[in-house]
Amino acid sequence: MTAELMDGKRVAAETLAAAEKRVAHIIDQTGVVPCLATVLVGADPASVTYTQMKRKRCEGIGMRSLKVELPESTTTEQLVAEITKLGQDDAVHGILLQHPSPPHVDERAAFEAIPVGKDVDGVTFGSFAHMWFGEAGFASCTPGGIVRLLDAYNVKIEGKHAVVIGRSAILGKPMAGLLLDRNATVTICHSRTQNLGTVVKQADIVVAAVGKPQFVQGDWIKPGAVVMDAGYNPGNVGDVDFDAAKGIASMITPVPGGVGPMTIATLIDQTVTAAARQLNMQDA
Ligand code: NAP
């Protein structure tokens, strides 16, 4: 068996094309241009690239983006004040604080300054609680993008056994919550899990979010399982041994071009939804 490749680039492009139509409709009906504010503290090169990419995608579909760049020396109080100001600005519909902030900043305090309605990156306690209780809120973007990709490929989630490897606040934990909300039976694995391969072997859906190149072995995969590789390691390598797993899985995400593009598409789509909600547009 050779697994079908799940083309995140294509699905992300379709997601953005649909978002572009919604943006045009919002502008047509209200004259307001949906806007994402990206907040970056310091000048970490990878973070600079990520925020640039996000703004470029916004502008590419007719949205506005607001660049907020603060010096490395910014204090928690200054950052919280800046984010609070954006939260109060009616022209800003979504706020993204690029992670990681410099170590002296209390990043949690800064995240919590984002109003839940503008938390399009799904990083606040409020968004997490909404997601966990199955209420309308914004998902953390990478797990949200993974669910969208599963849906785009008509993968049945309900009743399936999903094994999530990793329990970080931005990936593993929200991933488990989203899959649970879709009625999967969910197992969360982490660094203290024993007999990891045996646990993974039971999965109909595997989500790898470990941060270790080619960590998930081909012989851990149950024949016919669907494998979602969230990993993104130096050299464009995922967390799954792709060559081994693709001969056993029924579907698999490549790295790059699988989960990655879905993350930004989810962020942009959630920003359009945030704008529609703030403008009381039920049909956008
Ligand atoms: P993280 O915060 O470092 O979390 C890694 C998780 O893996 C932890 O929960 C850790 O367990 C677990 N783990 C580590 N070693 C393990 C082992 N030997 N066996 C089982 N579990 C183990 O990483 P993250 O932020 O969630 O990111 C995970 C991966 O996704 C990275 O490759 C990252 O680059 C990628 N990523 C991609 C995107 C995207 O847009 N595509 C976005 C974000 C992240 P403990 O909790 O026990 O330590």
Please explain how this structure is put together.
The strands form two sheets. Strands 1-9-8-7-5-6 form a six-stranded parallel β-sheet. A three-stranded parallel β-sheet has the order 3-2-4, sandwiched between helices. It folds into two domains: 33-118, 3-Layer(aba) Sandwich (Rossmann fold), CATH 3.40.50; 141-258, NAD(P)-binding Rossmann-like Domain (Rossmann fold, 3-Layer(aba) Sandwich). The protein is an alpha/beta fold and 284 residues long. 41% of the residues lie in helices and 14% in strands. The chain has helices spanning 8-30, 45-60, 76-88, 107-112, 125-132, 141-152, 172-181, 196-200, 242-245, 259-278; strands spanning 4-5, 35-41, 64-70, 94-97, 161-165, 185-189, 205-208, 226-229, 251-252. The chain is built from ten helices and nine strands. Helix 6 packs across helix 7 (172-181). The model has no long low-confidence stretch (mean pLDDT 97). The protein is globular. It binds NADP nicotinamide-adenine-dinucleotide phosphate. The site of NADP nicotinamide-adenine-dinucleotide phosphate has 26 residues, from helix 10.
